[in-house]
Amino acid sequence: MADAAQTTIGRTTIDTGEVERFSRLAAEWWNPTGKFKPLHKFNPVRLAYIRDQVATRFGRDPLSARPFDGLRILDIGCGGGLLCEPLARMGATVVGADASETNIEVAKLHAAESNLTIDYRATTAEALADAGEQFDVILNMEVVEHVADVDLFISKTSAMVKPGGIMFVATINRTLKAWGLAIIGAEYVLGWLPRGTHQYEKLVRPEELEKALSAGGLSVIDRTGVTFNPIADRWSQSRDMDVNYMVLAERPGFN
Amino acid sequence: MAPSTKSNLPEQTPSDAATRTSFDVVIGGGNYVGLATAVAIKQARPSLEVAVVDAAPAGVWKKDSRASAIAAAARRMLDTLGCWDELAEEAQPINEMIITDSRTADPVRPVFLTFDGTVSAGEPFAHMIANVHMNGALRRRVDELGIVLIEGAGVSNFERRSAGVTIDLSDGRTLTSRLLVAADGVRSKLRDLAGIKVNKWDYGQSGIVCTVKHERPHEGRAEEHFLPAGPFATLPLKGNRSSIVWTERTEDANRLVAEDDLIFELELERRFGLKLGEIRVEGPRKAWPLGLTLARDFVGHRFALAGDAAHGIHPISGQGLNLGFKDAAALAQVIVEADRMGRDIGMLDVLETYQRWRRFDTLQMGITTDVLNRLFSNDIAPIRAIRDLGLGLVDRMPRLKDFFINQAAGVSGPSPKLLQGQPI
């Protein structure tokens, strides 16, 4: 494992001091009780939904050792690789994209430690789309509420979905309840996220998202709310889409 | 290693198993908890590489002369793990359980609680099985499933890093794993190496364990007599034999096991009675110090405790083994479900699911048995009156009795799938 880490770092042009900094950051990203605890808590519900939907759409057994074998998956805004690594373990060929060079170096370092092969790129979804990249599955998780132009962003990312492929979009609804829970609750009361992480006017309603997806040539095939149960200390799927929700869209293709 | 690395490596064939040094799960301790955990994981998830490391040299396990009470839930688990068919013939069903409270000298012991001993129609609430048979069946499954069993070498040290744990064995070998499970008993060395502290209560009591042969059949009846020094239990074995768990103050217990056969048998007869005719002690007798040991944490980074390493409880309610099987079932389920989502099975957030699941149940059982023992192990008249009344009341209230019998059968509370007889 140590050898693999050396090799991967060897391919980059980063000096040793930087490597130490990335190494500290990687430890922070991957500490389930640290700064990124809310993301770690959120991961199981997202992963279960992704695994089950991908298995259904591509006719795979979700309980097999590598249900995603042969599928090319893009994770937009991959951060430290919290979703990319499980996807790789499930057998997918994973491209992780993040605009932050630091995040990408952190993710590369950790993947090498975990002995996983993941294609991490410091780039934007727009640049990947312009380069004509195509994927079976695209994960567009918690990104649209941060972009300047939702319609343009969805149109660019939709273009990368292969015929018969699917895209997951997870975001936060623009409702009074979301303002109370996701902004006031999560940022100001619970301190789960830094203040200013989300701005109310940039939150996206499901109908706006679905309109943009249709314009991009995708059809919505599933949607679900995601809610937090404070007693069980766990996120789970729910019919309530007032705050956090996920939408699954497909590019009609074969058959 | 992680499944996704396999494409980069040459395919492992079964003959490579002996030389493999990197695993997904390494279990320290080759008793039934460690073996059951390994079998449960590997059966549900063959892609995970699992090893069991046992400090005892090969064959030592065959010298265990003890027998254990297997509650209905644990029996279902053994069935689901593919062990029960070969055990069924060796298992003695407990059809009836009698609990009484009396002084040793009382000529006739009042019968306070008679459990009919059935959990669901046709299912005995427990079976007695010789440890050697149970371990033999689990070891056969370990072999069949391709789990690596390392015998005669214990874990001497380990170091946890962010992505894995490096494990040094006493024979000089080094293994790597994503997760290390400590199933090495109540005085767990691995727990100490991990720096996990325990809360400990010493009862000053020891349990004398032995097997007796008697003239007449026991008809599958188990008895538990609450004597002033502590509980005295007889549990039916195959043939005209019973297993004895006999609690005394530690100095008395040590003195008794050291006595010659005649005196030991005489003392035993005073408690066992002559209802099954003449009795004779078979094989060794041994006194085990009793106490309640609870680990403050059941998990850490890339580390989990299971069985007595997490909780050593008083054997008063016969729950030690069944709690151990519950741990094995819960831990295996948590690991398998996380791996099916591609999650790193050694991460603390995965393991905390197991801790939340098991800790409350364990604490509750630990406290219940502790209170029962304190209540029963004395001869103060007013307390005797209260508990006699208590046991009589329990017998008259069907719902409370159901609660007790279901607790004894280990089927109450949220149950891991294996204990419900379902595969993970």
Automatic annotation (TrEMBL), chain A:
Designated gene of the protein: ubiG
Taxonomy of the source species: Bacteria, Pseudomonadati, Pseudomonadota, Alphaproteobacteria, Hyphomicrobiales
Amino-acid positions noted as binding S-adenosyl-L-methionine in the UniProt annotation, renumbered to this chain: R46, G77, D98, M141
Pathway per the UniProt entry: Cofactor biosynthesis; ubiquinone biosynthesis
Reactions catalysed, as given in the entry: a 3-(all-trans-polyprenyl)benzene-1,2-diol + S-adenosyl-L-methionine = a 2-methoxy-6-(all-trans-polyprenyl)phenol + S-adenosyl-L-homocysteine + H(+); a 3-demethylubiquinol + S-adenosyl-L-methionine = a ubiquinol + S-adenosyl-L-homocysteine + H(+)
GO biological process: methylation
Name assigned to this protein: Ubiquinone biosynthesis O-methyltransferase
Record GO terms (molecular function): 2-polyprenyl-6-hydroxyphenol methylase activity; 3-demethylubiquinol 3-O-methyltransferase activity
Known role: O-methyltransferase that catalyzes the 2 O-methylation steps in the ubiquinone biosynthetic pathway.
Family of the protein in this entry: Belongs to the methyltransferase superfamily. UbiG/COQ3 family.
EC class of the enzyme, as a word: transferase
Residues that span the membrane, as ranges: none
SUPFAM superfamilies linked: S-adenosyl-L-methionine-dependent methyltransferases
The protein's Enzyme Commission number: 2.1.1.222, 2.1.1.64
Keywords of this entry: Methyltransferase, S-adenosyl-L-methionine, Transferase, Ubiquinone biosynthesis
Domain of life, source organism: Bacteria
Pfam families assigned: Methyltransf_23
Species in which this protein is naturally found: Tianweitania aestuarii
Keyword Transferase: yes
Automatic annotation (TrEMBL), chain B:
Functional pathway: Cofactor biosynthesis; ubiquinone biosynthesis
Source domain of life: Bacteria
Residue ranges constituting the FAD-binding domain according to the UniProt record: 24-340
Entry keyword set: FAD, Flavoprotein, Monooxygenase, Oxidoreductase, Ubiquinone
Needed co-factor(s): FAD
Name of one Pfam family that matches: FAD_binding_3
Recorded family membership: Belongs to the UbiH/COQ6 family.
Protein name as annotated: Ubiquinone biosynthesis hydroxylase
